[in-house]
Design goal:
Elements (H helix, E strand, L loop, with lengths): L5 H13 L13 E7 L9 H11 L3 E7 L4 H13 L7 E5 L3 H7 L19 H7 E2 L2 E2 L1 E8 L1 E5 H6 L8 H15 L5 E4 L6 H13 L15 H16 L12 H9 L3 E6 L2 H6 L10 E4 L13 E8 L6 H11 L2 H10 L13 H6 L3 H10 L9 H16 L5 H17 L3
Helix pairs in contact: 8-9, 8-16, 16-17
The structure holds alpha-D-glucopyranose (GLC).
Length: 426
């Protein structure tokens, strides 16, 4: 048992028994490997490897192999669907975009954690993250990091031209025009956001719908329940591009592309998630100390609100090591690990108390404000058919943003396709 401590051996025995096979533990059995799938971790200093080694040290005989997923949420989803359809997915713990939990739970891909969660264990997390971990009255995952859509602005430029962060979209467009005219810099863009055909675009469209006082799904499940308002929201997004408030490459922009352009000092406003703040404020960043953040504007029939996002950690139902996998999930979503991730990895905690933690706030004075914006965030529709909804809408909405289809036509087409899809997917 090369180098395995007595504690490690005990653990191996326990987990072999729990996995249902007392005969499984042959004398030559090697260490147990837990495979953890996760998105790439961005941030000034990645504490992840250190955290995993810490978990291993506390669990002798257990190794954690972390494997990163492709960049976009859509590609990650595809990876999971392909691998989870089979019997043994090849991983134990998986990072899940918040929007997938109902779908994965219904498909039978996640271990049901309801009876394993301790009373009060979830009290420390944002209630919205707990809601997103729950489906059909059962618990399927632990909240790991929290996101909300924010408006970043160049504090120096707004101050120089005598502006406050805009509260309405009209004010934002006006500030863009005036600042650009006064600066006379043809490389300075106005407002950057995510308009590429992928999940991130759907998030931006939802936020535009909310700012226009409507949503994507009505209470009865109707798609675009108020088509006039939806058309206004889509027309608004299209006009941002058509009038040059946003650059033409917005229709190819994801979070990172838009973050880099803003970080290079080439734009006045940016819609993005909180992780961006840490990168913009990192040593060597061209906009360090010159960035502010605010809620997304509203004022076009509705109140501005950022979409919530983030990720959970779930356990593959086919895992051979459910207890160890749960121990890893608990460790990574625990206070210590979330604190380390918040400090170094730009992953914002799901544990609310950390946003007022003096040591963390000393390193990131925006934390209390981000906490309040997280609380004010709105979720995307919660349904096992969410991905179907999103991927069906994506080409229609993209066609509007690039100017190939009128917003009214796209709404009619999207409704026709989705009424059919959702009806056959209930
Ligand atoms: C972020 C969010 C996630 C969202 C994705 C869209 O990763 O955390 O919830 O789906 O962006 O691009």
């Amino acid at each position: 048992m090369g180098g395995l401590s007595p504690g490690g051996l005990a653990l191996l025995l326990v987990s072999a028994l729990l996995a249902g096979g007392c005969t499984e533990l042959a004398p030559h059995a090697g260490p147990i490997t837990l495979v953890l799938k996760h998105a790439r971790i961005l941030g000034p200093a990645d504490p992840f490897p250190g955290l995993l080694r810490e978990f291993e040290a506390a669990h002798p005989g257990v190794r954690v192999r972390s494997e990163s997923l492709p960049w976009s949420s859509d590609e990650q989803h595809q990876f999971y669907v392909v691998n989870l359809e089979g019997q043994s997915p090849g991983f134990d713990v998986m990072m899940l975009d918040v929007i997938w939990v109902p779908e994965f739970a219904r498909a039978g891909w996640l271990l049901d954690l309801t009876d394993r969660v301790r009373p009060q264990e979830f009290a420390a997390y944002f209630p919205s993250t707990v809601a997103a971990a729950t489906w059909s009255g059962r618990v399927w995952a632990f909240p790991w990091n929290m996101n909300v859509g924010l408006l970043y602005y160049r504090r120096d430029l707004l101050a120089k031209h005598g502006f406050q962060p805009p509260v309405t979209w009209a004010a934002l467009a006006d500030q863009v025009r005036r600042i650009r005219a006064a600066e006379g810099d043809p490389t300075l863009e106005g407002y950057l956001w995510q308009g590429k055909q992928y999940e991130g675009m759907i998030v931006n469209v939802l936020e535009a719908l909310w700012a226009h006082g409507t949503g994507l799904l009505g209470d009865d499940g109707t798609v675009f329940p108020e088509p006039e308002r939806a058309a206004a929201a889509l027309g608004f997004l299209r006009r941002l591009i058509a009038t040059g408030v946003s650059p033409s490459w917005t229709t190819a922009a994801d979070e990172e592309l838009s973050r880099r352009a803003f970080g290079d000092g080439h734009a006045i406003f940016l819609r993005n998630w909180p992780y961006v703040l840490n990168l913009l404020e990192a040593p060597g960043s061209r906009v360090r100390g010159r960035v502010g953040l605010a809620p997304l504007p509203g004022g076009v029939g509705g109140v501005g609100a950022g979409s919530t996002g983030g990720s959970h950690l779930g356990i593959a139902r086919g895992t051979a090591h459910p207890d160890l996998a749960l121990a890893l999930v608990r460790f990574l979503t625990g206070e210590r690990a979330e604190r380390a991730m918040a400090a170094g990895a730009a992953l914002y905690p799901t544990r609310t108390a950390l946003y007022h933690d003096p040591a963390l706030v000393a390193g990131n004075p925006w934390l209390p404000r981000i906490h309040d914006l997280m609380l004010a965030g709105r979720p995307r529709p919660v349904t096992p058919s969410y991905l179907l909804l999103s991927t069906t809408l994506q080409p229609e909405l993209s066609a509007v943003l690039v100017g190939l289809k009128s917003e009214r036509r796209a709404i009619i087409d999207a409704r026709r396709r989705l009424d059919y899809f959702l009806a056959s997917n209930r």
